[in-house]
Amino acid sequence: MLKRDDRIDRTSITTYPVVSESRRVGSPSVVSIPRHPFRRLWLRVHLYLGLFGGALFVLMSLTGSFLVFYKAIDEWLNPALLTTSGSGPYKSLNEVVATAQAAAPAGGWLESLELPSHEREVFKAWHKVPIDQLDRFRWYLVTIDPYTGSVLSRDREWGTYFVSFIYELHESLLIDKLGRTLVGFVAIFLLVSIGTGLYLWWPRSGRLRQAFTFVRGRSVIRRQYEWHKLSGAYGAIVLAVLAFTGVYLAFPTYVIPLVSVFSPVDDPSDERAVQSHPVSGQLSLSVEEAAGLAQRLVPDGRIIYIGIPPELTDAYQMAMHRPGDIRESAGNNMVWLDQYSGAVLKVHDWQTSTAGEIFVAWLFPLHNGEAFGLIGRWIVFFAGFIPLVLYVTALRMWWLKRQAHRRQERSPDDRASRGLFGR
Predict the structure, then answer these.
(1) Could you count the other beta carbons within 10 Å of the beta carbon of residue 140?
(2) What CA–CA distance (Å, rounded) separates 344 from 332?
(3) N or C: which end of the chain has fewer CB within 10 A?
């Protein structure tokens, strides 16, 4: 965050120890505290991370700010496709699923169904369409009015409409798995930048108040430095949390085993051990029946998401929100049911989670701010603009100092000739 070099330290940033009157006359001179030998190294690391990685930091943070409210923005941009003005009872889940399956894109199948979270929201049916032999898919969204059962949209391919494009840009830089890896390293480099910036900013004894206040200076460089300093100091904690949680989202297969060393973690996304057992002559349960079983199992839960089993051995998967969950949008509870017998295959209960599972469950809600409700979302939203301020002020300081160095390097004869000929 803080980009300083020896020139700034000597000219506009250096402060001097306060010497009492008794020490000013006839007393030994005050010996200044030597700087840490690694300070120059951290300064260089911080400088080059900012210059070469700052643009990516800004891109990730601004797209992250947008995604805090991406669902609301999508509804605002496309009200006819994503909202309804109807009223009355909802259509049954069986009717909604049948409508969604009838509207499936060619070659695709219904993978999941998102239930409305408020009275104006619609059912969202997600379809998978294979595109090659490498286990790659396109995702299509079909939206259905919960009151009339009519299809509102059927050709929304994920990644092609505005908010999904921004989501993919933030998550993977639009280059799939390699992009996710790059985004993870950007988050790691941002953590290093925050750490080195805090080290360079850290106030000496008795200077704490000055470190958190804007110190007016005559030079433009000084003013840019003050904005850079204060933006980094006040935003460091939130930015560090966002960067750390971003590392988890990019590398969950590495983070979860690491957390498991200290406390067991059952990864809900690992469904290898959850399989239905087909019985000859027995039909699959309807979505309505499966949802009823899950609701009786978790009576205080609200079903948010239903995973539809496309294969014979796949299971119904229900995501449920219960009072006290930190994930308002998706809940922290999962139920897997055998699609034939309705037997409970697995339950992920937030209220009985281990310390490791609680730690992991907090990471995504911290990343998008929903862990602390609307206030948390707004904090994350505004925090996304801090790297922009840091980057602009850092570039401004670097450029001004570069220009100043160039002026100093001009020979006396060159300066004299410029003055003689009025240039």
Answers:
(1) 22
(2) 17
(3) C
| pTM of the shown model | 0.83
370-390 residue pLDDT tens? 999 999 999 999 999 999 999
Tell me the C-alpha to C-alpha distance, in Å, between residue 153 and each of 97, 156, 212. 15, 7, 52
Distance (Å, whole) CA 124 – CA 117: 11
Q: How many CB atoms lie within 10 A of CB 332?
A: 24
- Measured between alpha carbons, how far is 316 from 345 in angstroms, rounded to an integer? 10
- Name the token pair of 22: 């008794």
d(CA 339, CA 346): 13
Exposed/middle/buried for 6, CB within 10 Å: 0-12, 13-18, 19+?
exposed
Question: Rounded to whole angstroms, what are the CA distances from 300 to 116, 244, 268, 289, 334?
Answer: 17, 33, 20, 18, 13
pLDDT value at residue 417:
52
Between helix 373-383 and helix 355-368 the angle, nearest 10°, is 60
